[in-house]
Amino acid sequence: MTTLIAEDLLLLLLDDRKGTATSSHVDVALGGALLLELALDEAVHVRERTSIWSGAKVAAAPGATVADPVLAEALRRVAERERSASDLVNRLGKGARDALTARLAERGILRREDDRVLGLFPRTRWPEADGRHEDEVRARLAAVLVQGLDPDPRTGALVALLHALSLAPSVVDRGGVPARDVRRRAKQVAEGAWAAKAVQDAITASTAAMTAAITATTVVTAAGS
């Protein structure tokens, strides 16, 4: 089954039984995943920073097209005008969760459950319906993070995203390998030379933007508590 990197990431970020997100940063993570997939498809490129004060800018590649409708919508937003990676991971993440969960449910991977919290507030949950694809994703991640195998581009991008979210040790069966070793391996993959420079630039820009957005959210939450 062909899935987007964002779909694989979303499956990892949903509780299989409850169908709710296990991270409060799902939307920005999905935005980063969509941006990375566009980079892997050579549909976008990251411009060199002109100064230490300016963030990385992302633009659509001339004439770029993608077949997947979710990716096509993401590319349309990128093509509107050149924007910073930090702007794009937030912009692309808006609405992505709804689109991707609905599509995964159509494919029989998730199932939709509607209920009410305290009998009053409507809620939609997306528990697992068929875990075979997610099991395959976790197995590929374990091969890279635990066994030390070289990643293919999609798995490498997924590892980089999980590293930015500080979740790499929690999504694989570590088989006794210490969490710190998995984190170290994830960092090594995220910064590694397995990808072409254009993709590596996109990984660096996207994960840096995700980290900044997560940090900003954490600071605001802490200040309001």
Automatic annotation (TrEMBL):
Any Pfam family matching the protein: GPP34
Single Gene Ontology MF annotation: phosphatidylinositol-4-phosphate binding
One GO cellular component, as annotated: cytosol
Keyword Membrane on entry: yes
InterPro entries xref list: GPP34-like, GPP34-like_sf
Membrane topology: Peripheral membrane protein
Keyword Membrane among record annotations: yes
Subcellular location: Golgi apparatus membrane
Keywords assigned: Golgi apparatus, Lipid-binding, Membrane
A GO BP annotation: Golgi organization
Protein name in the entry: GPP34 family phosphoprotein
Naturally occurring in which organism (per UniProt): Cellulomonas hominis
